Amino acid sequence: QLQLVESGGGLVQPGGSLRLSCAASGFTMDYYSIGWFRQAPGKEHEGVSCISSRGDSTVYSGPVKGRFTISRDNAKNTVYLQLNRLKPEDTAVYYCVRKCTPSLTEFDYRGQGTQVTVSS
């Protein structure tokens, strides 16, 4: 059974950091790009970042570029998203997605999400 399970969300103050993890199972993660989308209350979901199947190419959305870092460990079937210098506007449910594209507009499967709240 295909699964993407996110963890690592929580409440953090502005300027703080979090590290999200996405554990993949039920498919060969090495064959797929993996990424992150997010959805804030009352807003459409937006692409945040995507990493290629071998980890040699990454893309970021404008609002997070320079603050977030995506990485993957195919041996552990896990993808990570390091969130630094967090802002209140980063508050959202963060979803791990499979088969993302460089345009950060498409994917074919997503996990259940993990809540990130940035507030003082």
List keywords for this structure.
single chain, 120 residues, mainly beta, seven-stranded mixed β-sheet, 48% strand
C-alpha end-to-end distance: 39 Å
Radius of gyration (CA) equals: 13 Å
H/E series:
EEEEEEEEEEE
**Unreliable sequence segments:** none
Task: Tell me roughly what share of residues is in helical segments.
Answer: under 10%
Strand content: over 45%
Care to describe what's here?
The chain has 120 residues and is mainly β. It is built from no helices and 11 strands. Strands 2, 4, 5, 6, 9, 10 and 11 form a 7-stranded mixed sheet that branches. Strands 1-3-8-7 form a 4-stranded antiparallel sheet, with no helix packed on it. A hairpin with a 4-residue loop joins strand 7 and strand 8. It is globular. It starts with a strand and ends with a strand. The relative contact order is 0.32.
SSE topology:
Elements: E1 3-7, E2 10-12, E3 18-25, E4 34-39, E5 46-51, E6 58-60, E7 68-73, E8 78-83, E9 92-98, E10 109-110, E11 114-118
Parallel strand pairs: 2-11
Antiparallel strand pairs: 1-3, 3-8, 4-5, 4-9, 5-6, 7-8, 9-10, 9-11
Summarize the model shown.
The chain has 120 residues and is an all-beta fold. 0% of the residues lie in helices and 48% in strands.
